[in-house]
Amino acid sequence: MLPLEHLLRVLGGLSVEAEAEDLADALWLAARLPPPAEPSGDGSKMLDDGDPAHLPPPRPENDPAPDPGELRLSGRPPDGPSEPRLDLYLPGAGDRADGTGRASQLRLPAPRALPYPHRLVRSLRPLTRRAPSPDRTQLDEEATVQNIVDTALWLPVLSPAPSRWLDLALVVDDSTSMAVWRETVQEFLSVLVNVGAFRSVQHWTLPTEEVATRGLVLRSPAGPGRDHSPMEIVDTTGRRVVLVVSDCISPAWSDGTLLRLLRTWGGTGPVALVQSLPRRMWERSALDLRAVRLRTPAPGTPNVRQTHTPLLEQGDPAHGMAVPVLEMDPRWLGPWASLVSGESPTWDTVVAIVPERPDTPSADTARLRQDDPADEEIPAQERLERTKARLSPAALRLARHLAVVPLSLPVMRLVQQAVCQDSRPSVLTEVLFTGLVTRVPWAEPSGLPHQDRDTVHGVLFDFRPGIRELLLSEIRRTEALRTLTLVADHVLGELSSGQSPVTFTALFAEEDEAVAVARSEQHFATVTAQVLRHLSNRYETLAQRLDPRATPEEGIAGTSPDGGTEPHDATGAMPVPAPLLDRDAVLAELSRATQPVTGTIGEGSETARIVLVAREGSGTTAVAARYVAEHADSYGHIRWTAAADGTPSFCAPGELEEAVGRAHAAGRPATWLLVVDGARPEDVPAVLPNLPGTLLITSTVDAWPEPFAVHRLPPLRPSTSMGLLRGLVPRLSPPVALRVATRLGHLPLALTMAAGLLSDGLLSDSGATDEAGAALLAALGADPTPGAPPTGPLPDPLPAVCDLVLERVGLRHPEAVPLLDLLAVLGPGPVPLALLRHVLPGDTETTEAAIGTLARSALVQPSPDGALLSVRPAVGRARRRHMDTFRADAARRLARAALVSCVSALAPSSGIGVTDLADAGRRRDRVALTRHLASIGALTDRDPSVRAAVEGQVHFLVACGYPAAARSLAEDALAHWGADDPLGAELAAVVGAEEEPDAAGPAGPSLDDTGRGGP
Q1: Residues 267-321: tens digit of each pLDDT
Q2: Which of 638, 626, 634, 625 is nearest to 571 (CA)?
Q3: Which of 498, 525, 554 marks a domain boundary?
Q4: pLDDT per position as a tens digit, 37-55
Q5: Rounded CA gap, 485 and 472, in Å?
Q6: Angle subtended at Cα 296 by Cα 292 and Cα 301, rounded to the nearest 5 degrees
Q7: HEC readout, 104-142
Q8: N or C end: fewer C-beta atoms under 10 angstroms in the chain?
Q9: Are residues 272 and 173 both part of a single domain?
Q10: What residues make up the domain containing 20?
């Protein structure tokens, strides 16, 4: 590779955009720089006698942000033991009242306010032109020589020296709302000073909130605070540019005072307004904004001499001076610099029109102030809904996380750094100044407000009453806990050693000293108490100690009076979570990946769409089940459904959307989780709830469209798969276990089924495990010779081992074959044992023995209470491949007959209402029948008894509170029966019923297919 190509590749890896001129300048400078000094001694030691200040800063945890579509699965645990945790507390205005604990002030490194300053420098290059200096001269060599020739007098000829063309005055609005932008302004000022385009750069502050008492004055931030006249920065020569940085929401902007000042400055030179708010919020300011084509006749033309024509149909053309409105972004500053320098004489942009006599606020301005959502009379729920309609997705997500912490600027910036990939203050500004948050002063120990407004760290905000509680109800509990510990984790990332006398763990352990330290800052203690109540009811005692003034009834919405959360709304055929091998890293990565993000499919505007992809039998379903079990407390609503073509599901996404909407309207936790097991892209629901949630999909399909984040589950490591196999078959020798595991591709399900063959004596009559292993290897097409090297994996090991197990079970246990046939024709998901008992021949002991045989061979999975039975999808497909049409039809007829008998046995003694069914197990069994009706042909059967059973199931689902599933089942039945069927009229009534909350009868309890009230 050529050296230049290598340099370009290195710069590209560092995300450095270098133009040709930049690269040439860098190479020219590098050739003239001295070589770097060689380090002496051991390079691993600290420089400057171990001074850590000279070490490079550690790489931030989220910089650069990982691609959400990638999942880095590391099989290694973290190196070294975990470090002790340090506590971080907000600084109080005075000393601690109780005098407990020791603390040191620590200034946390904040993210860069201007992410790409070099791009700003590049955008301002048109202003670096030179002009003749009015007061500096230089020797004109050519003119001097020519003068000597002409006059024979050796006299020098001087000419004006070229100098920088313009001066710059940066005037910053010093209102309270601009406090969050102070660091951004400082970085912007550094860019303006270092760009090399201006002869001088002056920095002034404009106290807009003091206009009514002191008039229009300017102050120097570095000076003693003396007032200066705004006329001091007027340059009659026209060689000074004025940039005014403001959010334009101060009253002085709406009464015409500051507009008159802009007109004064714009009469002698270029003036522009740098709007600190993001573009979508400009219309809420007091400015008369217009989209125009701006023309300048010459470089440096004052604003009053520039012309503008409207770009849009906005009525009569605006009369007055046009002031360009800019963002602190190269996309805005670059075209403005080209306009001022004359490089580009026209620019289509947004300007603020300053009339000739800006005396009174416009009608639009008055209307905006009247309709301000920060009005105190607006209820919290209405205020939040109106504000959410204007917030960007990033700002809304940040607001939810900020509800977990006290709102001081350093803490908010740290949370933004971790939660949002965009570190610009515009996202935080949206949260602070759209009606959700109000500013409160620090309190001195005497109770008097702290007056030092120049200290950024002294600014403290708080949510308006009721807003924090509503936002907490929209965030998952694991996210809330992660945000609560974020600041302490950030400190540990910056410090390599050290230990606090009071640990964060000690606070959760309710140690007296830790509680006393936390209570020394009352605002911190109050917020922490609210968040602890949101996390779990087991923190109620600690919450009471932190904030004894609050009662449990004052907790967040969605909690019960005793501080505990309301029962989860959880339905679906979730498998029983089983122990996982070598999947801890996967679960950890999934926990980080399932953060709500902006989506474009369906109506879920903040839905994390995660697809866990692997070969069938790799354990994606088990990983998803474990995720649900571990994170159930983070969601208010959980649904688990198996993807199946045309199979109605009582846990349909429509039901989830209705449940989430009802919970959010009632102020209860509305976060949701939908798991679709074994899905393809076309199986994914098109409509999702429009609230934060997670869509978790397990699939064998690799290709998924945006915005789905595909995470691939790696196969088990050889040592892990050997451990799994030998754990199930202890007497199997390691060499044989390795050869079997390798042949089966280290698939967990295939290994589990192979273990059933080896331990149940299905391959060898001698009982010798290694002999059975050799027989298994031979049956799988591998070399069974002892000591032979492992044979490579089968192309598709799961169907091969399924066929082998089914063959051996059929030969050794023929009593289990009818059960296999019946399970093969049923739909996906659990099957009630009550249905099977109506068709299986023999007594109960024979049935249980057959189920035990299939379970030991890993062909089926019984529920913990033995009331439900699930056949593995690969097993069902393998069995159907070996069933001819006659045998499959016979199994379906048997299943339909069992359906009629089962529905009759599970029917209530009086009425159909759920309250008439005292036995929860009967309710569960009846609901579980729904998913199997289409598979067994119940919807196409003409038998009146079968159709009556289907019609009764529709009404049962309505009574249970599953109207969407009932309508889906009724529509499918009507499609086959026709409207002329005697039962068709009743089904048509169900299909046409309006979706009213009480139209379906009383809603039953939340039950899943396993009979549990939730995972």
Answers
A1: 999 999 999 888 877 877 778 888 899 999 999 899 999 999 888 665 556 788 9
A2: 638
A3: 554
A4: 544 444 333 333 333 333 3
A5: 16
A6: 125
A7: CCCCCCCCCCCCCHHHHHHHCHHHHCEEEEEEEEEECHH
A8: N
A9: yes
A10: 1-35
